[in-house]
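Posting this for the archive.
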Amino acid sequence: MASEADDDFIYSYGIVPLPATPRSGWCLRLYEHHITVAEQHFPTTAGSLAKSMNWWHTLTDVERTEYTISFNGIVEAYNAYLVGAAYAEAETVACAWLDARSGS
């Protein structure tokens, strides 16, 4: 993402938490000359226990250990995963938008 000091950038983007809470998802804003030209939301909703368990069983032992260190339980870890996945999706959309404008 372009910083405020990078005035040479014509196109840039910003990803910020949706207003409710950071865990409710992300808002992607696309900018042209520092003016918002588009906005897209990437909401997340809390996963069920069943979905959390299904996800947990797809992880490697190393991944499970990493999540166990950082979170209190499988459901909390799964919800953090969903937030991260929504952010990654927003960033993918932003990069594709930038690539389309740069001719890459």
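The longest strand covers residues 35-43. The two ends are 17 Å apart (CA to CA).
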